[in-house]
Amino acid sequence: MSIFKSLPFRNIAGKPVRSFVLVLLTALLSLTVMGGSLIVSSLRKGLDSLEARLGADVMVVPYEQATKTKIEDIVLQGSTGYFYMDKTFMDKVAEREGIGEISPQFYLASASSSCCSIPVQIIGFDPETDFTISPWIKRSYGKELGKLDVVVGNDLNAFVGDTLTFYGQECHVAAKLDKTGTSYDTTVFANADTIKALIQSSLDLKMNNFSDIDPDKVVSCILINAGEGYSADEVVNDINLHVKKVKAIKTKEMITGISDSLSGVSEVIGILIAAVWILGVVILLLAFTMSVNERKKEFAVLRVMGASRRKLAAIVLQEALITGIIGGIAGVLLGLLIVLPFNSVIEETLKLPFLLPGAGGIAVYSAAALIAAAAAGAAASGISAFRISRIDTGLILRGEN
Amino acid sequence: MILKAEKLSREFIRESRGTNRFIAVKETDLTVEGGIFTVIMGRSGSGKSTLLNMLGGLLEPTSGKVSYDSVDIYGLSDGELSRLRNGSVGFIPQGQTALHSLSVIENILMPYTLFREDITEAEKYAEELMERLDIAELKNEMPSALSGGELRRMAIARAVIRKPGIIFADEPTGDLDDENTETVFGFLRDSARAGAAVIAVTHENTASKYADRVLRMTAGELQG
Ligand SMILES: Nc1ncnc2c1ncn2[C@@H]1O[C@H](COP(=O)(O)OP(=O)(O)OP(=O)(O)O)[C@@H](O)[C@H]1O
Ligand SMILES: [Mg+2]
Q1: Contact B114 A13 (CB under 8 A)
Q2: Half-sphere exposure of B78 toward its Cβ, with a 13 Å CA cutoff?
Q3: Which of A198, A281, A387, B24 could form a disulfide with B47 if both were Cys (CB 3.0 to 4.6 A apart)?
């Protein structure tokens, strides 16, 4: 006999409404686990990647900028606000104690570009001293960037070999970076020579008034790694104490804000999952209890035919597992359907870096959600199964004619 | 197969009546042998179903014992007793007992499929039984499409599909017309002729025509 003809399957098919409700309930349970864990893990991964990408212990920015805007918004969310300070600060800072690696970055906004409808952030770096972006570019590109070579973030609609035009200047896309879940995904990286060419071109075309910014004379920020034996705190304090008109910020601190809101979001999601589960399990319990009362006669008839108490319990459990697995799969698919296509919407809404786990991670979460839902169904039915096994056949057969 | 009941009784707790304990079946001795068709008659509420359920292993007696071929059935484990019920006992309960998610033939074969046993042989026998009970053309219908009498005959076929050594029937003709009543009693008698111990509870006087032995139940007491 085919398994689909076995009694638990037939009972499920024979009672479509009851089965549908049970499937729906377990689907809801697995959906919350799936969606919740996917969102939380994506946020964690976004944060991790952010930490890795920042790659510097300390960031130095112009003092007035640090008071005006939240630096982390600019760095992490790509808000287009741009600021510059004289390059001499670079030397002043470099003289301080405890500096290990130090390299400037130069920010440029492009209001129009051939790739994108939104303004993209262009970050210029100094290939000689850079320690944050180069290792990462080397990994995706394999060589150093030449003049008018750019590396694009993962979300930009440009691919290796494409030509992008910024301020009328054609640039060659040398590499595309992996997804980071940060503003780096919409950033274009170029070396200082390229930046200079772009500024010159914008001036020639009178597209922008960049006349007062010269990449040879100004920088946007300075990235620093503490030297051996020095902590980031020491470096920050030393700079803030001795170098005027700049502000040193510990990058970890910028992330703290994000990491705080992340734990806030995780907590809300956790509470949501718990609430749905408590409700769902209570309803499941009720549903199974009701269905046992309704099905007493049916079970008594099976007893008459020679089903043992254990056999009846097994039938009930199998039914619960089948609806649990179907519901679990439905919930997982629904979760994927909601989170995967709308991950950028979620990122926008939460204003936090969001990086989906890889296929392996998604498989693990799917399995966990499925198992949790099926187990909840089985556990809820377990009580019913026990009650059924207490049924006194003779009494039930007499009671309902 | 020999069924033996010794000093079998059953009490129920009743809140509403004056006395709390109500004796539905008074101490009863009964022996039924294979090949014999026994009919128990009696008024409603006299304890017939209670007695039959105890004899069939479905209701624990308050006192006394029931044995099949000298095996004390209430001394068996639930699993053992269930096996015995599946293989050696055919029980047709009072009232409707169809499994509504299964078709007529699937209902009849359930004693096999419950344990995932092969049904090729059994299916042939099921068709034979349906023929005899005049429900052959309903083979693939769902129970909801059947009349009360047709459902009753389906339950009879289901009870005897394993050719049990003991057959119990509680009001097997409750909702049957005269013609079908004769068919069913004839069928039960033939089952006894084939070697089974058959015990039927009924109001129907025609049953005595077919029975080898008629017993009366009055207020919990069984009389020869
Ligand atoms: N579970 C129970 N609790 C209390 N009283 C019961 C219970 N089962 C049976 N009785 C009582 O025992 C008596 C015998 O019941 P039983 O069902 O055996 O009668 P019966 O002879 O089969 O009647 P009928 O012909 O109407 O089916 C009745 O008075 C009934 O009320
Ligand atoms: Mg009765």
Answers
A1: no
A2: 13
A3: B24
